[in-house]
Amino acid sequence: MSYLHKQKKAILIVSYGSSSYNAGNNFVLTLQEQLKSVFHDYAVYPAIITHNYTQDKDSTVLPFLFKVLEELHNNKITSLYILPTFLLPGHSFLKMQQTLADYQHLFNEINICKPLLATKGCYQSISMSLATLYPIHHKEIVIFLGHGSSHSSSIYYSELETYLHNNHHINYSVLTLDFISDIEDFIAGLHVRGIKYIRLVPLLMLAGYHVLHDMAGKHQDSLYSVLTAAGFEVDCILSGLGNEPLIQQLFIEQMKTHFK
């Protein structure tokens, strides 16, 4: 970052990995401009974390979180508000928290927003946004594909699906990558219901390797190939949720609520 801010308060938009900015995945910078227009008294910075800071260090234009924290301290920023773009408070969120804890002593306060799926009352706004973005057509189901996690926070995926089903969105399903290898019963249930068409939508802010390879890849083990082989007509959405203005607005509203 070559620019300086006079503000003593800053908002940090924290994403995971080098794919946080590439062709088609620039929602972080769009969100940065939106936050600047709403919170005039705050400097707004993007940052990324990885589980290995030496990995892909030259493949992104976004700076690592620890580098941003060092520069903010040098620029006399005293108060931080952290907006993570993770859906879950899983391993990446914990890694972010640890990095922030390591630099806590440099700032007067660090306030952290919860990830979207862990925010109180989030399911209504998220499910309404998803249903608006991806309306159901005749004999169709929409599958939202999340990353999945060994962390206990993965329960939020099933809770989102339960909320959708309990609110008359029965033709929406939430699956994770680790479910692909054990999908036979799910497929059988779709055939019983007379489903003919499937749309695969990333339940991910960014459309990276998992979307292009695990979800929509043409190899036989991708979700697209498995469902196509089962007789469905499958359409893949190759854009992350973060590129959708409705989802970006959820982050804006989250920050407004956090600032009250």
Tag the structure with descriptive keywords.
single chain, 260 residues, alpha/beta, four-stranded parallel sheet, 8 strands, 18% strand, disordered N terminus
How does this model look, in words?
With 260 residues, the chain is an alpha/beta fold. Helices cover 37% and strands 18% of the residues. It contains 9 helices and 8 strands. β1 (9-16), α1 and β2 form a beta-alpha-beta unit. Mean pLDDT is 88; it is low at 1-5 and 54-59.
| Mean of residue pLDDT values | 88
Number of helices: 9
Please state how the strands of the largest beta sheet are arranged side by side: 2-1-3-4
Distance from first to last alpha carbon = 29 Å
Q: Work out the radius of gyration.
A: 19 Å
In terms of per-residue confidence, which ranges show pLDDT below 50 for 5 or more consecutive residues? 1-5, 54-59
Oligomer classification: single chain
The portion of residues forming beta strands comes to 15-25%
State the shape: elongated
Q: How many β-strand stretches? A: 8
Question: Sheet with the most strands?
Answer: 4 strands, parallel
Summarize the SSE layout with pairings.
Elements lengths: L8 E8 L10 H12 L4 E7 L15 H10 L4 E6 L6 H12 L6 E4 L9 H12 L6 E7 L8 H12 L5 E5 L7 H9 L4 E6 L6 H7 L7 H7 L3 E4 L8 H14 L2
Parallel strand pairs: 1-2, 1-3, 3-4, 5-6, 5-7, 7-8
Structure summary:
The protein has helices at residues 27-38, 65-74, 91-102, 122-133, 155-166, 184-192, 209-215, 223-229, 245-258; strands spanning 9-16, 43-49, 79-84, 109-112, 140-146, 172-176, 197-202, 233-236. With 260 residues, the protein is an alpha/beta fold.
